[in-house]
Amino acid sequence: MFSKILIANRGEIACRVIKTARRLGIRTVAVYSEADAGALHVEMADEAVCIGPAPSAQSYLQADRIIEACLKTGAQAVHPGYGFLSEKASFCEKLKAAGISFIGPDVHAIGAMGDKIESKKLAKAAGVSTVPGYLGVIRDDEEAVRIARDIGYPVMIKASAGGGGKGMRVAWDDAQVRDGFRSASNEARSSFADDRVFIEKYITEPRHIEIQVLADGHGNALYLGERECSIQRRHQKVIEEAPSPFLDEHTRRAMGEQAVALAKAVQYRSAGTVEFIVDKDRNFYFLEMNTRLQVEHPVTEMITGLDLVELMIRGAAGEALPIRQADVKLNGWALEARIYAEEPTRGFLPSIGRVTRYRPPAEGRRPDGTIVRVDTGVVEGGEISMFYDPMIAKLITWGPERASATRAMGAALDAFEIRGVGHNIAFLAALMEKERFRDGRLTTNFIAEEFPDGFHGLTPTESVRQRLLAVALVAQRRAAERDGMVSGQMAFRQPSSEALVARLDRVNHPAVVHWDGNGWAVELDGRHLDVRSDWELGRTLWTGSVGGVPLAVQIERRGTGWVLIHAGATLVVQVLTPRAAELADLMPVKQPPDLSKFLLSPMPGLLVSVSVAPGDTVEAGQELAVVEAMKMENILRADSGGTVKAVRAEKGASLAVDQIIIEFA
Ligand code: ADP
Asked: Whose CB among 70, 80, 95, 565 lies 3.0–4.6 Å from 554's, allowing a Cys bridge?
């Protein structure tokens, strides 16, 4: 067994690997960029080596510096995590040459699976079912159209070197193929320095279901069940779960056996994932194999009781797998939610900045038997920088069945506090509230279909709204009491029972709030609600119960009102005296300015091109400009017809969000 390993990664996954290494009594070395000097993984490791400036190309992707760090610290093996160098065959070769072990598969397996076109050919040869398509490189858009027609619409254009959902376009007709061919190859060139694309059938109403495989260097290979990752946004996973609510025992075994066949065909060693797309009739097709630990591996760990990082480390040290296929038992249900620094209400734009407050829910078993796990890579006061993946943490819950795991996820999300950067917790909570999610009726179009106009916060049900208003009413009473104790204020006694109005979205909800000797009680909309909590003013997380229902609410005083966040809903509530509420009705409403005459940049990014000039008339749907952000090209199109009055930004400009690009007459 190794006595010291180096983790060639950052963020939550570096921390995750360090935890297991520590438990196994292995010393750990972190590497970090100048931007990460104060990062959690650096703090957690026994030693840390700075490997360069902030951009990953100059630090986390610098194989030579990482190998130097190994030699300097005496690390015998490297765990690459995911991303960065985890699937770079050349990195493995260099490690080997330096006499350092790679905690992952052999270099030839990485090479064989690293390219989508090549890996599909290999899978086909190994008897794995693949998506119908054309496994050649496409030269130009006319050839693309010809092939697309051959396959039959809809089709998907994909970058052979692709990953992370980049360089991927769905096309339903010839025009979309031309567009998609161009933007997919451009994106592939800028992201992977490789513009080869291919075309395959687009499976409609698809589910993404993947098989975790595990193999050792002694000829043993097995599968650890599946993960369903159909909840995606722009082909990027958002929620993952294990097992899948869709698979039957027969399909599970068939997929598992094909995945193992593929692993054996490339003499796979270590943990790996074979991804499939599954249609509504449970036909499944191979997508790709990821030759590394996946982001979503914790859900498999939760239902199998195995530690995949431990098994990877032991395997790399030459140990044989301690289990056989028959020993793999799936127990209960696990969900994972990816918490990203982004602005869901602004089209999911990435958000960066300092995390001024970071309080994840407590880990461990809850009284109801569910389990909460948080895989984190940030600390309070830390920075989410533009240089790296915007993931803040992964929240994982386990329950004996899917419903309890889902409930546990909702409750854990409600209690997860992050301030300073935008984040998607309310959006994730809203997903948990969807009936279709609870029914397990998932496809990769779930988010697009359930949120066709984007995410604007969930409207709470009437009973949830009442509970939240009761929380605000009591919070206001507590605030008023404290204000009354400030010295120099006119002394006054709060009446034991007080009429107040909770005002939400310009609607007044008359209420009576009183102290009943044991706690607060609220009369609201004809209902009596007992409010029980040990909340103190100034705390941003309110926990307790309202009307007997346990509740976690994030609460903040903003101006004269209260902002309450719960289960995907954000409420801004004003608590007023009845007289003030009457007067509030007379106040004018501020009208937002009319921006329909402008094309605004929807995100911070680079203006790649502007395809119109002053005086041009444009039609609805016509391309106006292309903005590149996070290495993705976004084509901005006209919402309606009009005439261009002025172009207000130049090609090559770096745009702020909402910056004007084009003005219309
Ligand atoms: P990446 O390596 O960029 O993550 P994948 O090939 O794994 O790309 O695909 C990512 C996602 O794109 C899948 O989970 C699925 O949602 C969607 N997808 C990929 N291929 C197809 C297809 N042929 N039909 C329908 N959806 C697909």
From this structure: 565
